[in-house]
Write a structure and sequence with these properties.
Elements lengths: L6 H9 L3 E3 H8 L3 H13 L3 E6 L2 E6 L3 H12 L5 H4 L3 H9 L4 E2 H8 L3 H13 L4 E3 L2 E3 L5 H22 L4 E6 L2 E5 L9 E3 L1 H5 L11 E4 L6 H11 L4 H14 L3 H10 L3 H13 L11 H10 L7
Antiparallel strand pairs: 1-3, 2-3, 4-6, 5-6, 7-8, 8-10, 9-10
Helix pairs in contact: 2-3, 4-9, 6-7, 11-12, 11-13, 13-14
Protein backbone atom coordinates (compact mmCIF):
# COMPACT_ATOMS: atom_id res chain seq x y z
CA UNK A 1 0.00 0.00 0.00
CA UNK A 2 1.41 3.38 -1.07
CA UNK A 3 0.59 5.80 1.75
CA UNK A 4 1.34 9.00 -0.19
CA UNK A 5 -1.73 11.02 -1.19
CA UNK A 6 -1.83 12.84 -4.51
CA UNK A 7 -3.34 16.27 -5.17
CA UNK A 8 -6.03 14.65 -7.32
CA UNK A 9 -6.92 12.20 -4.54
CA UNK A 10 -7.37 15.11 -2.14
CA UNK A 11 -9.49 16.90 -4.74
CA UNK A 12 -11.75 13.86 -5.18
CA UNK A 13 -12.26 13.52 -1.41
CA UNK A 14 -13.23 17.20 -1.18
CA UNK A 15 -15.82 16.73 -3.96
CA UNK A 16 -17.61 13.69 -2.50
CA UNK A 17 -20.85 15.12 -1.12
CA UNK A 18 -22.21 12.53 -0.66
CA UNK A 19 -21.52 10.41 -3.77
CA UNK A 20 -20.42 10.98 -7.35
CA UNK A 21 -20.01 8.73 -10.37
CA UNK A 22 -16.73 8.23 -12.17
CA UNK A 23 -18.09 10.33 -15.04
CA UNK A 24 -19.12 13.16 -12.71
CA UNK A 25 -15.70 13.16 -11.03
CA UNK A 26 -14.03 13.31 -14.43
CA UNK A 27 -16.15 16.29 -15.42
CA UNK A 28 -15.49 18.16 -12.16
CA UNK A 29 -11.74 17.56 -12.16
CA UNK A 30 -11.12 17.85 -15.90
CA UNK A 31 -9.25 14.55 -16.24
CA UNK A 32 -10.12 11.38 -18.12
CA UNK A 33 -12.45 8.71 -16.71
CA UNK A 34 -9.64 6.16 -16.97
CA UNK A 35 -7.35 8.28 -14.81
CA UNK A 36 -10.18 8.91 -12.33
CA UNK A 37 -10.84 5.15 -12.12
CA UNK A 38 -7.19 4.45 -11.28
CA UNK A 39 -7.13 7.25 -8.70
CA UNK A 40 -10.35 6.00 -7.10
CA UNK A 41 -8.83 2.49 -6.90
CA UNK A 42 -5.85 4.00 -5.07
CA UNK A 43 -8.15 5.82 -2.65
CA UNK A 44 -10.08 2.62 -2.00
CA UNK A 45 -6.84 0.79 -1.25
CA UNK A 46 -5.99 3.49 1.32
CA UNK A 47 -9.39 3.20 2.97
CA UNK A 48 -10.71 6.62 1.92
CA UNK A 49 -13.57 5.63 -0.41
CA UNK A 50 -16.03 2.87 -1.20
CA UNK A 51 -17.17 2.02 -4.72
CA UNK A 52 -20.56 0.61 -5.65
CA UNK A 53 -21.90 -0.38 -9.06
CA UNK A 54 -25.42 -0.06 -10.47
CA UNK A 55 -25.60 -1.30 -14.01
CA UNK A 56 -22.63 0.19 -15.80
CA UNK A 57 -22.39 3.19 -13.48
CA UNK A 58 -19.80 3.23 -10.69
CA UNK A 59 -20.59 5.41 -7.69
CA UNK A 60 -17.87 6.65 -5.34
CA UNK A 61 -18.58 7.54 -1.71
CA UNK A 62 -16.49 8.41 1.30
CA UNK A 63 -15.73 5.30 3.37
CA UNK A 64 -16.77 4.92 6.99
CA UNK A 65 -13.17 4.86 8.23
CA UNK A 66 -12.12 7.41 10.82
CA UNK A 67 -9.18 8.75 8.80
CA UNK A 68 -11.48 9.34 5.78
CA UNK A 69 -14.04 11.32 7.77
CA UNK A 70 -11.32 13.32 9.53
CA UNK A 71 -9.68 14.23 6.22
CA UNK A 72 -13.02 15.25 4.69
CA UNK A 73 -13.78 17.46 7.71
CA UNK A 74 -10.25 18.88 7.57
CA UNK A 75 -10.57 19.85 3.91
CA UNK A 76 -13.87 21.61 4.62
CA UNK A 77 -12.84 23.38 7.81
CA UNK A 78 -9.48 24.53 6.45
CA UNK A 79 -10.61 25.36 2.91
CA UNK A 80 -8.60 28.60 3.18
CA UNK A 81 -5.39 26.55 3.19
CA UNK A 82 -3.90 24.89 0.07
CA UNK A 83 -4.09 21.44 1.66
CA UNK A 84 -4.05 19.79 -1.77
CA UNK A 85 -0.44 21.01 -1.91
CA UNK A 86 0.51 20.64 1.76
CA UNK A 87 -0.77 17.11 2.37
CA UNK A 88 0.29 15.51 -0.89
CA UNK A 89 3.31 13.36 -1.64
CA UNK A 90 6.25 13.48 0.74
CA UNK A 91 4.61 16.28 2.72
CA UNK A 92 2.49 13.65 4.47
CA UNK A 93 5.60 11.56 5.19
CA UNK A 94 7.33 14.51 6.85
CA UNK A 95 4.33 15.56 8.92
CA UNK A 96 3.77 11.96 10.03
CA UNK A 97 7.18 11.97 11.73
CA UNK A 98 6.20 14.99 13.82
CA UNK A 99 2.99 13.51 15.26
CA UNK A 100 5.27 11.54 17.61
CA UNK A 101 6.87 14.75 18.88
CA UNK A 102 9.58 17.20 17.94
CA UNK A 103 12.56 16.12 15.82
CA UNK A 104 15.75 17.76 14.62
CA UNK A 105 16.58 18.00 10.92
CA UNK A 106 18.66 14.80 10.85
CA UNK A 107 15.99 12.65 12.51
CA UNK A 108 13.24 14.26 10.43
CA UNK A 109 15.13 13.38 7.27
CA UNK A 110 16.01 9.88 8.44
CA UNK A 111 12.50 8.91 9.50
CA UNK A 112 10.70 10.54 6.56
CA UNK A 113 13.10 9.05 4.02
CA UNK A 114 13.22 12.18 1.84
CA UNK A 115 16.33 13.86 0.49
CA UNK A 116 17.95 16.81 2.24
CA UNK A 117 16.95 19.22 -0.54
CA UNK A 118 13.35 17.93 -0.55
CA UNK A 119 13.08 18.31 3.22
CA UNK A 120 14.31 21.92 3.10
CA UNK A 121 11.71 22.73 0.42
CA UNK A 122 8.91 21.26 2.52
CA UNK A 123 10.09 22.99 5.69
CA UNK A 124 9.96 26.35 3.90
CA UNK A 125 6.51 25.56 2.51
CA UNK A 126 5.14 24.45 5.89
CA UNK A 127 6.51 27.55 7.60
CA UNK A 128 4.90 29.80 4.96
CA UNK A 129 1.53 28.38 6.00
CA UNK A 130 2.20 28.30 9.78
CA UNK A 131 2.29 24.50 9.83
CA UNK A 132 5.69 24.16 11.45
CA UNK A 133 7.45 25.57 14.50
CA UNK A 134 11.21 25.48 15.07
CA UNK A 135 12.57 25.57 18.59
CA UNK A 136 16.02 24.66 19.94
CA UNK A 137 17.08 23.23 16.57
CA UNK A 138 14.01 20.98 16.50
CA UNK A 139 10.80 21.11 14.50
CA UNK A 140 7.30 20.45 15.79
CA UNK A 141 3.66 20.83 14.82
CA UNK A 142 1.87 23.92 16.20
CA UNK A 143 -0.79 23.20 18.87
CA UNK A 144 -3.58 24.61 16.68
CA UNK A 145 -3.03 21.85 14.10
CA UNK A 146 -4.73 19.30 16.34
CA UNK A 147 -7.15 18.29 13.57
CA UNK A 148 -4.31 17.62 11.11
CA UNK A 149 -2.44 15.64 13.77
CA UNK A 150 -5.53 13.54 14.53
CA UNK A 151 -6.06 12.77 10.85
CA UNK A 152 -2.42 11.70 10.45
CA UNK A 153 -2.57 9.51 13.56
CA UNK A 154 -5.68 7.74 12.26
CA UNK A 155 -4.26 7.38 8.76
CA UNK A 156 -0.92 6.00 10.01
CA UNK A 157 -2.74 3.49 12.22
CA UNK A 158 -4.89 2.36 9.28
CA UNK A 159 -1.78 1.95 7.13
CA UNK A 160 0.02 -0.03 9.83
CA UNK A 161 -2.86 -2.44 10.51
CA UNK A 162 -3.59 -2.95 6.79
CA UNK A 163 0.07 -3.50 5.91
CA UNK A 164 0.61 -5.93 8.78
CA UNK A 165 -2.36 -8.02 7.61
CA UNK A 166 -0.72 -8.29 4.20
CA UNK A 167 2.71 -9.14 5.62
CA UNK A 168 1.61 -11.64 8.26
CA UNK A 169 -2.09 -12.05 9.21
CA UNK A 170 -1.17 -13.82 12.45
CA UNK A 171 1.21 -11.12 13.70
CA UNK A 172 0.56 -9.06 16.83
CA UNK A 173 0.51 -5.30 16.37
CA UNK A 174 2.35 -3.42 19.16
CA UNK A 175 2.86 0.24 18.28
CA UNK A 176 2.82 2.68 15.38
CA UNK A 177 5.07 5.70 14.84
CA UNK A 178 4.27 7.59 11.67
CA UNK A 179 4.18 5.12 8.79
CA UNK A 180 6.46 2.73 10.69
CA UNK A 181 5.27 0.14 13.18
CA UNK A 182 6.41 -2.45 15.70
CA UNK A 183 4.98 -5.97 15.86
CA UNK A 184 5.68 -9.51 17.02
CA UNK A 185 5.04 -12.93 15.53
CA UNK A 186 5.52 -16.52 16.66
CA UNK A 187 7.98 -17.40 13.89
CA UNK A 188 10.51 -15.58 11.77
CA UNK A 189 9.70 -13.33 8.83
CA UNK A 190 11.58 -12.18 5.73
CA UNK A 191 10.43 -8.95 4.07
CA UNK A 192 12.35 -6.13 2.40
CA UNK A 193 10.91 -3.48 4.73
CA UNK A 194 10.91 -5.52 7.95
CA UNK A 195 13.85 -5.43 10.37
CA UNK A 196 14.40 -7.43 13.54
CA UNK A 197 14.43 -5.24 16.65
CA UNK A 198 13.90 -5.25 20.41
CA UNK A 199 14.91 -8.46 22.16
CA UNK A 200 15.30 -10.21 18.79
CA UNK A 201 18.20 -7.90 17.88
CA UNK A 202 19.47 -7.73 21.46
CA UNK A 203 19.82 -11.55 21.41
CA UNK A 204 22.54 -11.15 18.75
CA UNK A 205 24.66 -9.37 21.40
CA UNK A 206 23.36 -11.14 24.51
CA UNK A 207 22.11 -14.75 24.19
CA UNK A 208 18.58 -15.04 25.61
CA UNK A 209 17.12 -18.06 27.36
CA UNK A 210 13.85 -17.67 25.44
CA UNK A 211 13.48 -16.77 21.76
CA UNK A 212 11.70 -13.52 20.97
CA UNK A 213 10.46 -12.36 17.57
CA UNK A 214 10.02 -8.60 17.41
CA UNK A 215 10.08 -6.73 14.12
CA UNK A 216 9.84 -3.19 12.84
CA UNK A 217 8.35 -2.15 9.51
CA UNK A 218 10.57 0.57 8.04
CA UNK A 219 12.70 1.26 4.99
CA UNK A 220 15.61 2.63 7.05
CA UNK A 221 18.37 1.07 9.13
CA UNK A 222 17.70 1.08 12.87
CA UNK A 223 20.16 2.43 15.42
CA UNK A 224 21.03 0.47 18.55
CA UNK A 225 19.36 3.19 20.58
CA UNK A 226 16.06 2.65 18.77
CA UNK A 227 16.36 -1.14 19.10
CA UNK A 228 16.68 -0.68 22.88
CA UNK A 229 13.66 1.62 22.95
CA UNK A 230 11.63 -0.90 20.94
CA UNK A 231 12.36 -3.51 23.60
CA UNK A 232 10.89 -1.17 26.22
CA UNK A 233 7.83 -0.40 24.08
CA UNK A 234 7.17 -4.11 23.51
CA UNK A 235 7.13 -4.88 27.25
CA UNK A 236 7.52 -1.71 29.37
CA UNK A 237 6.71 -3.45 32.67
CA UNK A 238 8.63 -6.70 32.27
CA UNK A 239 11.56 -7.03 34.66
CA UNK A 240 13.29 -9.64 32.52
CA UNK A 241 12.85 -7.47 29.45
CA UNK A 242 14.17 -4.33 31.13
CA UNK A 243 17.12 -6.25 32.57
CA UNK A 244 18.21 -7.21 29.06
CA UNK A 245 17.82 -3.60 27.95
CA UNK A 246 20.20 -2.55 30.73
CA UNK A 247 22.71 -5.23 29.71
CA UNK A 248 22.43 -4.10 26.10
CA UNK A 249 22.99 -0.45 27.06
CA UNK A 250 26.17 -1.35 28.93
CA UNK A 251 27.55 -3.86 26.44
CA UNK A 252 27.04 -1.70 23.34
CA UNK A 253 27.77 1.61 25.09
CA UNK A 254 24.69 3.31 23.70
CA UNK A 255 24.47 7.06 23.24
CA UNK A 256 22.27 7.72 26.25
CA UNK A 257 21.24 11.20 25.08
CA UNK A 258 19.96 9.77 21.79
CA UNK A 259 18.37 6.86 23.66
CA UNK A 260 16.35 9.32 25.77
CA UNK A 261 15.32 11.44 22.76
CA UNK A 262 14.02 8.37 20.96
CA UNK A 263 12.29 7.11 24.12
CA UNK A 264 10.48 10.45 24.37
CA UNK A 265 9.19 10.09 20.81
CA UNK A 266 7.85 6.64 21.70
CA UNK A 267 6.33 7.96 24.95
CA UNK A 268 8.42 5.68 27.21
CA UNK A 269 10.76 8.39 28.48
CA UNK A 270 9.95 7.77 32.16
CA UNK A 271 11.00 4.13 31.94
CA UNK A 272 14.16 5.03 30.02
CA UNK A 273 15.08 7.66 32.63
CA UNK A 274 14.55 5.13 35.44
CA UNK A 275 16.82 2.61 33.72
CA UNK A 276 19.61 5.14 33.35
CA UNK A 277 19.11 6.31 36.93
CA UNK A 278 19.55 2.72 38.13
CA UNK A 279 22.82 2.53 36.19
CA UNK A 280 24.02 5.84 37.63
CA UNK A 281 23.12 5.13 41.28
CA UNK A 282 22.75 1.32 41.46
CA UNK A 283 19.82 1.89 43.79
CA UNK A 284 16.43 0.19 43.58
CA UNK A 285 13.97 2.39 41.67
CA UNK A 286 10.47 3.17 42.94
CA UNK A 287 8.55 1.53 40.08
CA UNK A 288 7.74 -2.08 41.15
CA UNK A 289 8.54 -3.44 37.68
CA UNK A 290 12.10 -2.08 37.63
CA UNK A 291 14.85 -4.73 37.94
CA UNK A 292 16.64 -5.31 41.25
CA UNK A 293 20.18 -3.82 41.02
CA UNK A 294 21.62 -6.93 42.69
CA UNK A 295 20.02 -9.16 40.05
CA UNK A 296 21.35 -6.91 37.28
CA UNK A 297 24.87 -7.26 38.72
CA UNK A 298 24.52 -11.05 38.68
CA UNK A 299 23.52 -10.97 35.03
CA UNK A 300 26.39 -8.66 34.15
CA UNK A 301 28.83 -11.15 35.69
CA UNK A 302 27.10 -14.06 33.94
CA UNK A 303 27.48 -12.38 30.54
CA UNK A 304 30.95 -10.99 31.39
CA UNK A 305 29.88 -7.40 30.76
CA UNK A 306 32.05 -4.82 32.42
CA UNK A 307 30.58 -1.82 34.25
CA UNK A 308 31.55 0.88 36.67
CA UNK A 309 29.58 1.68 39.81
Amino acid sequence: MNFNISALELRIISLLEPTLSIRELAEKTGVTKGYISRTVASLKDKGFVEVSKKGITKKVALSGSLHASRLKSLLQRRSYMPLDELLQGSGTQILSVLISGSADFARLQEESGVSRATLWRWIRKFKEHAMLLSRNDEYELPPDLKDIKEFLENYCSYFAVSTLKEISPGANFIAVKGFEFLFSIEGEIVHENVKSTGLTSISEEIPLMLSENYYFYSSRTLTREEIAVHAIVADPHGRRNLTYVILYILKTRLNTALFLRIAKRYRVEDTAVSLLKLLNTWERQQAPYMPDPAYVREKLKEYKIQWRE
